[in-house]
Amino acid sequence: MALTGTKVSSQPVSNLFLGNGIAPVSDLHDAGVTVALGTDDGDCNNSVNMLADLKFAALLQKGRARNPAVLTAERVLEMATIEGAAAIGMADRIGSVEVGKIADLIVVDMGAAHLHPQQSTASVLVYQANGTEARTTVVDGTVVMRDRVPVWLDAAAERMLIADIDAASARIIAAAGLRTRTDHTWVSTRPI
């Protein structure tokens, strides 16, 4: 893969959710392969939460290799940023904050108690953050979320969008002939 310049995208939570196994990310890195980190979509990674998935990516490789140093927090952040950009052939335009690149970034509130102590920003983001810390999102230089509120969508439109998402999901489940998964269909398998 390294010889052909093949790029890989790893979606650790999606792979676990679907029972597809654990990608050999550290082996790919050792071979010189660019490995991006993604979340996949809501059908196989219900939270689609990149900050939370950073931890999964790191811990899976440590467990797989039985080596706590096999994948550093810094490398995981690179997988989510510049390696992701390289994987789609856009490292010259996105993936890092640099003059001349498209301004895509998030502002993270680092003040919450669960983010302390803060010995390393990379370690805090990878091992302590859970996704709720993202306060502001900028896409191509435009603020699209400020203080956790989408600026492109008013509250009524957001509620309508969420209702449309739920309705679309129900239609897909029905069209596929699947049974809905609700709390009402849950039956404990453990004798009481």
Word description of this protein:
This protein is of the alpha+beta class and about 190 residues long. It has two domains: about 1-150, TIM Barrel (Alpha-Beta Barrel); about 155-185. Helix content is about 35%, strand content about 10%. It has seven helices and six strands. The chain has helices at about 10-15, 25-30, 50-65, 75-80, 80-85, 120-130, 155-175, and strands at about 10, 35, 105-110, 135-140, 140-145, 150. The strands form two sheets. It has a four-stranded antiparallel β-sheet, with no helix packed on it. Strands 1-2 form a two-stranded parallel ribbon. A hairpin with a 2-residue loop joins β5 and β6 (about 150). The longest helix has 21 residues, at about 155-175. It is globular. The termini are far apart. The mean pLDDT is about 90. Pfam families: Amidohydro_1.
Name a few traits of the molecule.
2 domains; 6 strands; four-stranded antiparallel beta sheet; TIM Barrel; two-stranded parallel sheet; alpha+beta; single chain
What is shown here, in short?
This protein is of the alpha+beta class.
* CATH architecture call of the largest domain: Alpha-Beta Barrel
Shape: globular
Write down the secondary-structure element order: EHHEHHHEHEEEH
Quickly name the level 1 CATH class of the largest domain: Alpha Beta
C-alpha Rg (nearest Å): 19 Å
What percent of residues adopt helix (DSSP H or I)? 25-40%
**Number of separate strands:** 6
Label the structural class: alpha+beta
Work out the helix count.
7
